[in-house]
Give the backbone structure.
Amino acid sequence: MYYLFLDALSVLFSFILARYCWTRLRFFVHVFQQVGYKHNEYWQWLRGHWEQKVIPGDLALYNILLFILVIGFEWLEVAITNTALTLALFVWGIFWFGSVKRYKADQIKKPLVFTSRIKRLMVPLAILNLFLPVFFMIWAYTGYIPFLWMIPPTYDPGLLSFDVVLLVFGWVIGALLIPFSVLFAGNITKPIERSIQEGFKKKARKKLAAMPHLKVIAITGSYGKTSIKFMIKDLLKERYSVCYTPGSFNTPMGICKVINNDLQAHHQILILEMGARYAGNIQELCDIAKPDVSVVSNVGLAHLETFGSQDVIAKEKGTIVENLGEGGVAVLNADDERVAIMGEGRSDIQRILVGLQNGEIRGEKISYDTSGTRFEAKFDGEIYEFKTKLLGAHNVQNMMLAIGVAHHFDIRPKTMAIAAQSIEPIEHRLELKKAGELFIIDDAFNSNPVGAKNAVEILGQFKNRNRMIITPGMVELGEIEAEENFKFGTAIGAANLDVVILVGEQRSKPIKQGIESVQENTDHVFVVDDLFAANELAREKATPGDVILYENDLPDVYNEG
């Protein structure tokens, strides 16, 4: 009965390890998806979470114990029976690997989506991750080495029906290699994905070539691309049939999907948002859809970690202007010195400079409250009053770029002003909304130094009510990340907010230090582990009529722990 019990325990052990491996595999595939299938970013993530996720204490300690029990005791000449070793390994294994909490969060902001790409990735992953456990299970239970079908002299099941060392080794090493198998499988499927993507690109280029009447408006910049896109769409749709990319579709496949599926023969204008994380990204997008009108909002610090410097960012953003053909139009932010000089040496294109301080089209006399923003637009020697539901001076800057594009397409100023009033805030970008008896300013999308400071200043102008901010700070700023988060903290301190909730103890340290450099009393500053804990604390502290600013909401891959 005792040996039968151990046999049954071996089956239970295998089921528990199979569950552990599957959950661990899903977790790392999810990380790979969230970093955009970028191998270098996935590897950087692994390096940053080596002890917490990649080789956690349970796996490391189990391997050490396995080594001691199998080899160490021979060195020490300590006798241990095979059945005792089996029982010890199984009990420890079931105890440590029975819980998968480390890889299964209670709440996930953006769950794993089993897209076609993920399904293709799962094929080599299944082969890679099943090989070791299955190989050693066959060996452990039969004694025969798979494929060779011979019994080696080291095979030692003792009085049991399996060799415990082989069984445990297969599962534990298999579990250990899972994060790296994702990287390896990604490399295996890379040529397939590249071929599929090239097919979509070719189809998109062919469709655009068949529509010579179509005008392509391409928008880039460190911040504000999506906002500007929707503003341009709303101003132009009064007169033109417009097709545009939804949300933040600013990658090659996002653009191809819209062109191939949504663009119709009746469309006159196609508005595309072009994003970049690495040098060459803009050119790749322009090779799909050559712009007739290029819009550049700014050259900021977003993705400084991958670009290295603002000058490199400026060169990449400037690619969208370089790709203009003869007679093309560049609508540029005149208040950004790096943007204002783009296309200066080209006499074959038209440059339209807009801004709040500089430019031929200028926004002035800005004021805003809970109903939105008012400002004056000056161009063609006239002054026009605009009202919009959008908050913030940077949204006025975005609107001026949209006005510059609309002016080029001969939209009347009064028509623009009417359209501007109906523009709704974009989700998660300084979106003012009511939640029960509270006011929420949702600026959770991809915070940046300029936008974050502006959002805090806006929050500070809400009087006669408590003002609260929830933020984890900013990421992907490279070496200046701590410095910029410190500055962000000083802005929060200067705004004299009533409640400050910082998310992530390590990540938010520079923000807290910035607040402390401005304010002596920081009893109103709280630090929590994640967004869910922040929301709970906010509910405890909030009273009817309070205003809560959500400034940035990092994806799950940035969560601490």
Notes: DSSP finds 20 helices and 15 strands in the chain.
